[in-house]
Write a structure and sequence with these properties.
Elements: H1 2-11, E1 26-31, H2 38-55, E2 58-63, H3 71-80, E3 85-88, H4 92-105, E4 109-111, H5 117-125, E5 130-132, H6 137-151, E6 157-161, H7 165-179, E7 187-190, H8 199-208, E8 212-216, H9 219-231, E9 237-240, E10 258-261, H10 272-280, H11 289-309, H12 313-317, E11 343-347, E12 352-354
Parallel strand pairs: 1-2, 1-3, 3-4, 4-5, 6-7, 6-8, 8-9, 9-10
Antiparallel strand pairs: 10-11, 11-12
Length: 362
Amino acid sequence: MLRFIAASLLIAGSMQASPALAAGLKIAVVAPTEGPFALLGQQMLDGARFQAEDRGSEIVVVPETCEAKDGSELAKALIASGAEAAIGFLCTESLEASLPALAEAGIPAITLSVRSDILMEDALKKKWPFFRLVPSAKAEAAKVTEVILSRWKNEPLALIEDGTIHGRELVESVRGALADIGLTPVFSDTYRPAQEQQVSLVRRLAKSGATHVFTGGDRADTAIIARDAASEQVPLTLMGGETMDAANQPVPLANGVLAVALPDRAIDAAAKATVDLMTAAKLVPEGYVLPAFSAVTLLEQAKDQAGKDDSKLGEALLKGPYQTAIGPIRYNADHELADNPYRLLQWQNNRFVPAPAVSGTE
């Protein structure tokens, strides 16, 4: 009962006159139950069950293998489950195989992991009821560009990347967006990753006059660049993307390094009541636990709205915002999160915290 109270507190205040809550719904959780991703699948199941059982919702486990060859069997299992909605979907292969059948049955799917822009484009063209609780692949570049324009527009800017597909595509997206408004970096380069030192790169950055650097590389390389810049007495303000959210090794990250990444939802004020209850129940709110919990909360509220409007569940998902433990969820017409969840964070004393505000910016 206490869990239901916590979820109800999230919903309270978002409605002026709350109607009676509808009965729960049957939700399929598509998640790995064995193999290397089983721990992530268990996080999804734990989070979903923690909310569902007190609202009267039912969770049905549909094992996900992440193998394309198992797609048809997964789709059959989903339809046979009798679920009204499906959440989870760690892997793109599972979604691609399931969405046509789910669309035919009118069952909305919410992924907690897959960010493919191509898959969403296909879903929109074919009118599949596909939503996600993670940002699109474009959202990271959009936030990086926003930060550069709001904070670094008048600074000598460098764009560097490590040659990986993700790093190259991220930096090229940012470069293209900046070029559209006539902003050109003073230095661009692809550096060799996984090196013990990056002194040569730091010296070339210094020679270019760049003082603010966005790096499309991983945390380890960025930490080495920051260390070598300090040793060479080259003042650089460094910012990375979501890959900065990784283990703080082998070289510790220097205080002050910035990252555009997703914040730790477990320490957000919106999640406090839920986190306290999970902690009391000896459930660690890490990984996919809070997103899965929030996906169930989202679907339960959408079902209430669908009952009020006499509409379909997928249509009701577009009528947010709905309050959840990871903040208010609102979808745009393209079934993407209407509000970009990426934030500018700063490494300080062994953790990422919100970056200090700068006058006249976000």
